[in-house]
Design brief:
Layout (H helix, E strand, L loop, with lengths): L1 H25 L11 H21 L2 H12 L4 H27 L2 H8 L9 H14 L6 H25 L1
């Protein structure tokens, strides 16, 4: 029981740290007012990397051994652990899925950033791709995500037009 108690303490520390990561990942992002759509992709790539690292750690042999010992001891701390494991898996899947969908927009970021009104010819294809993301993505099709993306696309268009006007 002494070993079990020590292992439960370790798992409780991990649980607290993982909860902190999850809470931080859900906080509202602070970004510059004129940030473009490539920042959205970078945000999700960073989040995917963080959660994949966390998943790798959770699936390590050291963690698995501790969890199996606590399972054998029928520890009550495992209920919280399993819930967090599920939450991390969901967050990692969301980030991976969002990166995959946002990469479909990546080909538009260059033309959108070019200092030329020619970017306008890319807008219909860009909007069709955004619509496809909204219709098919299981995670990114929320009002919050789509508003953030449209805001960044609009920011990029405004910045491109400003640059064009200042150069001309």
């Amino acid at each position: 029981t002494e070993v079990t108690e020590k292992l439960e303490e370790v798992v409780m520390i991990w649980t607290k740290q993982i909860r902190q990561v999850l809470v931080e990942s859900e906080q509202i992002r602070r970004e510059a007012d004129d940030v473009g759509p490539s920042a959205e992709l970078e945000h999700w790539k960073s989040r995917m990397s963080s959660f994949n690292s966390l998943l790798d750690e959770i699936k390590s042999s050291r963690v698995k051994k501790i969890i199996s010992i606590l399972q054998a001891a029928r520890s009550k701390t495992l209920k919280q652990w399993k819930e967090l494991d599920g939450s991390i898996t969901i967050a990692a899947n969301e980030a991976k899925d969002n990166v995959r969908y946002l990469y479909t927009l990546d080909k538009f970021f260059g033309p959108l950033a070019n200092a030329s009104p020619v970017m306008m010819e890319h807008i219909p294809s860009l909007m069709n791709t955004v619509c496809m993301i909204y219709c098919t993505s299981p995670y990114y099709n929320t009002s919050e995500h789509m508003t953030s993306l449209f805001l960044k696309i609009t920011n990029q268009m405004i910045n491109t037009c400003k640059t064009y006007l200042c150069e001309g």
